[in-house]
Amino acid sequence: MISEQKQFQYETQQYQEDCIGNILSIFEKLEQKQPFSKVMTEHHNAHNYHFPVQETGNIDIMMETGTGKTFTFIKIMFELNRNFGYKKFIILIPSVPIREGTKTNLEDTKEYFKSLYANEREKEIETFVYEGGNTAEVKRFIGTGHLSVLVMTPSSFNKDANILNRPLEYEIHYPSLFKNDEEPPKTLLECVKYLNPIIIMDEPHRFEGEAFRVFFSGFNNFYLRFGATFPKGKNATILSNVAYVLDSISSFRQNLVKKIVVYTQDIVQNTDTLLTIENKKAIVNTLINGTIIKRELGRGGIYNGKLIKKINKDSIVLNDNSIVKVDYSLSDDALRSMIAETVKIHFEKEKALFEHGIKALTLFFIESDIALFRGENPKIKRIFEKEYTAIRQTVIADLTHNPQQNETYLQYLQNDFDADGNLQVHKGYFSGDKGNADEKVKTSVDEILKDKKKLLSFESPTRFIFSIWALQEGWDNPNVFTICKLSNQGSEISKLQQIGRGLRICVDQNLKRNTIKRFGDNQDDFWRVNNLDVVVSNQEQGFVEAIQNEILSNSFIVADIFTEQDLKRVLKDKGNFDDLTVRNLFKMLDSKEMIIFKQIIDGHDIYEKSRNYLTILSAEKPNLTSEQFTVLENLFSSDYRNFVQEKNKVRPKKNLTIKETHLAEFQNLWNAINRNAFYMLDNLDQENEKILIYNIKTDIEALNIDEILLQTIRRELDINKIGQDDAITAKLKDNISYKSKVDYLQFVSNLSNNTKTPISFIVKIFNGLSLDFKNKILTNNPAQALKEMADIVRKNLVSMIKTRIHYGGEVTDGVVLPNVFLSENNKTYLK
Predict the structure, then answer these.
(1) Greatest mean pLDDT range, 117-126, 545-554, 706-715
(2) Cβ–Cβ < 8 Å for 242, 51
């Protein structure tokens, strides 16, 4: 078991040492007063980095999520102190979870670095954290002469009203820091700036904005920007002055993060289901031969037997003028099935991991409503508790067939309930939890955010964590093995960021990382332990494909450097060339040195684009077809839409006018139709009501409501084949029928509302239905039954009304609307 005395076991990672070495080599030249732009340009050329060099003072480090950038920048503080005497550092972090994660990392690595730098004067980093207006921490940071770091957020100083920007009430004198002829600082922030600290930014893309730029001015030393994300865009925090890059594809191929498997949960109905609208196409789920097929329908396509007349941004209009909207919310049935599947996956891997001394954790992301987990009716929490308890009973029943072999794991499961019989395996953290007075909530939050060792220990029963998006960048736990997205929100957030909480390589009860070295460099054995399962709904279109695309787009090995397979694939996609043409084009690019061979990585030949690419291509134009030349000319301009945009075409509205020669005909027509008429509806007597109810009941009981199928598709991304057609494999994991529980009272109420009829009338219909229909057919698919029963009620009501209606008397005198026509000569005629 993990005790308070145990510490995380760290080992030298070559990629981290390479990163630190690169930064130190840059600072060595800067300390020699070499020009910044010259130093960075030479560094880029030496490492074949094709990034801009700017006179801005930033030095950028791109390290993919899960590869230990926090550990790396803690070590770089020691190294900059050892080699150049720097003592003052500030770590800027964008959020509370990241702050807590940084504090934890500084604490967890303290003993490791103390032993590593045992012969150094500065064996420890004094850590000060500014939060909640605690200026004493800032003053202590200013006053200490030791190697020290101040952890803070930009929101601490990016407004005039911030405490750090308020005028000091008294003079602060630090003779050792400020010269006598210098104007004394007026604010605490100015005091900090006088120290000339080196700034370390964690996830710098979160620090954009004019307010940050203004108040950050005055920190005049170099600043290191460590990030997994550097957005590409006009005003984005672009990657520049690069010291080191460990991109997505490299981190996956070098087995520095977990393998990814995605389970898509579909509740399958025997009807078309609208998932989303993409590029003016309706993406639809259809059940064909027991398997869900995703179809792309345009105008004129058939949706549930009806013609699609129009496709809007988030809806489709059918030929009967009914509108079907995209609904991203998850039904209770969907929530229940996803939670159940996630718990099953957790148990499937937990016992094997337990035997390796590894505790398995599962993370749930829920919708942006804390009441779903906390409150008077915490729906998701209740569903989880019910599903977990039921599945746990099945697991224990299987284990007791061989109790001696499973004795230890069975004992572990006995901790699932407290002394009062309350389930205690699940806890939540939400952004509103800060300052929560509830002691139970505070204990849960502290364990999730601050006590990583306890959470990793078998001594703690917590294995399931619920959050919204509070646990994004910054919070991490290496033993998150399963992530379930119970929300389709956050689609604008990258898929890699969503799953980033679970990408880190796991640790055992001795806090030792299970790297590929521990498995004798056997990748299959490594992946059997280090794999991340992600459960998403069927509405999360192309989740695995999106992950692959992000890995490719975030990897500079593809943008500026590429494999032979990458290039051939792009050639085939862009030009639709046959294999022989693709082969010949590649040979030409290689032989003419339009692409330059660099090295071999993982058995793949790596090339980069020649700086003279377009010049050589122009010379080869006579030897190419026009199509080949066009494809090669745009081969590396994958985002041409940013530069060439089609202007919006807006059609002016035209008023409808009538030719004057036809005006008299329209006037005569209007005179014939513009008078009021009235109708009368005979009262429905008891006998006719019985007939109506019998007809409705007969039609309803003839309905064929198919069972819902609960289908789980397992998709696996093969990192070694990423970018290739066969990189993603899909397999049907489960395909089982699903019976729903029906709240009859709610069902009758919904049917009454949907048909705009009195509930007493609907109750009479419902009471007349057979028990067989209610208990067997209705439970197959209550939602479909509700829709079809409503159609039957409306249809029979209309038929009955038609037989009971008659017009009462002649048309009345008086004109309903004025006879207004606009002629082609813009004359208005009023009758």
Answers:
(1) 117-126
(2) yes
